[in-house]
Histone acetyltransferase
Amino acid sequence: MQPRQEITFDIEDQPQIFADATPKIRSIRFGDWEMDTWYVAPYPEEYSWYPTLYICEYCLKYMKSKYIADRHKMKCPMKHPPGDEIYRDGQISIFEVDGRKNTIYCQNLCLLAKMFLDHKTLYYDVEPFLFYVMTEINDMGCHFVGYFSKEKRSPLNYNVSCILTLPIHQRKGYGNLLIEFSYLLTKRENKTGSPEKPLSDLGLLSYRYYWRNVLFEVLNNSPDALSIEELSRVTSMTVNDIIATLQINNMLVRDEENGTYRIVVDKDLIKNHLDKVTSKGYPRIKSENLRWTPFILTRVLRRVQDLENERSLDMHEQQNPIDHINKSLDENMDADD
Ligand code: ACO
Ligand code: ZN
């Protein structure tokens, strides 16, 4: 992992193809950076024969050579991810990208992520997913930092399918920020959620870090004793994840007399821990900066708007918009099922 060296363009300078017969992309050029890849991603075979893959940091198009990448850079119209910007705080921006509307972008994103993920298998079937892309803004544009994907309808209430911070941005708190954001969306949906399993080793470390901190914060700020259900309601974490986190931190104690469990809180220990976390200065999500409504509702309201535009609403529906929304919601759910 190193800043990109300036290389003068030479049309004769064709990319060097592997001498051995193993197709494997060993590094990617991405914006001003070069990164070693960790795992193999299923790029079309003709791309896998080059040791370095060039990826446009804005549209995520992948290319075989610096020559092609430089030409692309001159004409690429994008300076930020497609979709809607739903969150902004200073330099940090988050975009919601629909796999159905921006299929190529999302497929390219999954291929990029696969180079740093060993077990996820989603690359081409992106339509059932929304992608939340975090960027850092400067004068040049919105630079990709990381993302997570989320099923539009998850029967198991997964609130994250895949999560990634690009290696050049790791260990600066962005993974934690993405996780915090995923729980904010779940909170707005009035649900609880958990990441899709299995988690990678790094995923597990990051989630344990987040879960512990968020539970410690709530317990630290609460003057009263809290039940696991109350913790779940406040944090949008599942009861299972709360129990697991409390157990790992030795905070669940069994009462031998009546066989029930108690949450044991050492306020000093929690406060010390939270002070250490705060001193890292990692970015935090500001819930008031989110401009977003959950997917189903947005979709239905847009449909209502379309119908109104076409002037096809009858008088009754125009006088009872809520009825109409409910009716559209029913139709929509029927259509989806
Ligand atoms: N080693 C030890 N602890 C770690 C590591 C690590 N490599 N990475 C994160 N942690 C823990 C630490 O406690 C860290 O706090 P600290 O740096 O102050 O010690 C804490 O998690 C928060 O780390 P962040 O900086 O917020 O996380 P980061 O931005 O590095 O992203 C992520 C974490 C997304 C898991 C990243 O490592 C990544 O993209 N890995 C490759 C892809 C992957 O494995 N994704 C998860 C798959 S599971 C799923 O998708 C549901
Ligand atoms: Zn581009």
